[in-house]
Fold:
Amino acid sequence: MKPSQHAAAGLAGGAAALLLTGSAEAALAFALSTVLMDLDHVVDYLLFGAPPRTLRRFLAPGDAGVWGRVVFVLHSYELLLVLALFWMEFDPPQWGGAVLAGMAAHLLMDEWGNRRKGFHLRLPVLYYSFLYRLSRGFRGEALLIAK
Structure:
């Protein structure tokens, strides 16, 4: 999904978190976690992207060859589960739950939105599983299915 769509969802979810909890920290945590999850795209592109690494190529949709490897550490249901278990064990501050909610919202938006795009390749069901990507060696071309 586009960063602007994640930002809009982050603002809306942050406002809802503020109304539900009365906590400005929870609102900010939801909004930021919804948007900042995409920083793993930047890291992957810089580490594994095919040269020349340009902003235009980075923003070009649907070209697995540009990425080379797709680790996307933050785009992981396993990470979400580990954080949830960690925070349940250690009684986190209120903003901890808001971070989890923001991350879950981001993943659900990506699940829905990225499957609707008209790419020549499609995402497999397990694409947002870190273990699935690991089992494919994080290779961009091995993670996508031809339509």
